[in-house]
Design brief:
Number of strands: 6
Radius of gyration: 20 Å
Order of helices and strands: HHEEHEEEE
Helix content: 25-40%
Number of helices: 3
Shape: globular
Mean pLDDT: 84
Number of domains: 1
Distance between the termini: 73 Å
Low-confidence stretches: 167-174
């Protein structure tokens, strides 16, 4: 019977590993292979992308899934690739600068951790926001990387309301 163990990986190292796997699977891969994987992902399938040998000689299977239900505009391979390339560049930039990366729990208690680095792209005049999440399944299930589009409306800045009496319209107290 297989024996499973849990390892803790620092967020930066996990993000770097995940970004490299996604880059290899969709950016470096030949266009035909990447487009076929995209078609399967956009159709709701979960795809294996790699088995990684860890420092302790154990192996971890990585799979990828895509939720494009909140994508705005016409969803196609080019739009997906642009979003993913932007996300991977933003992850690399944050890691290079040593910025702490916020994490959030996925909605619905599905066990997904969402990383606080996003990619905003515009297709047909409509912005879309892609993020990366990760789900650690049951022992032996490996890691599921979730590429997700979020509702861009939640990121729009709302005008700040000024309460009566607090404003200094003439700028006299400046």
């Amino acid at each position: 019977m297989a024996r499973y163990q849990t390892q803790s990986i620092p967020t930066g190292k996990f993000l770097s590993m995940s970004a490299n796997l996604l880059h290899r699977a969709f950016i470096e891969a030949n266009r035909t292979t990447a487009k076929q994987a995209f078609r399967e992902l956009s159709g709701g399938r979960t795809l294996p992308i790699a088995t990684v040998k860890m420092e302790d000689e154990s192996t971890v299977r990585f799979r990828v899934a895509l939720d494009h239900s909140e994508f705005r505009g016409r969803f196609n391979y080019g739009a997906f690739r642009a979003s993913l390339a932007t996300l991977l560049a933003n992850i690399a930039g944050a890691l290079r600068e040593g910025k702490p990366v916020s994490t959030f729990a996925g909605a619905g208690g599905e066990g997904t951790t969402i990383f606080g680095i996003s990619a905003v792209t515009v297709e047909e005049g409509a912005p879309s926001v892609m993020v990366l999440g990760a789900e650690l399944g049951a022992p032996g299930a490996g890691v599921l990387l979730r590429l997700m589009y979020l509702d861009p409306a939640q990121f729009e800045q709302q005008p700040v309301a000024v309460r009566g009496g607090d404003a200094d319209p003439a700028g006299e107290n400046a």
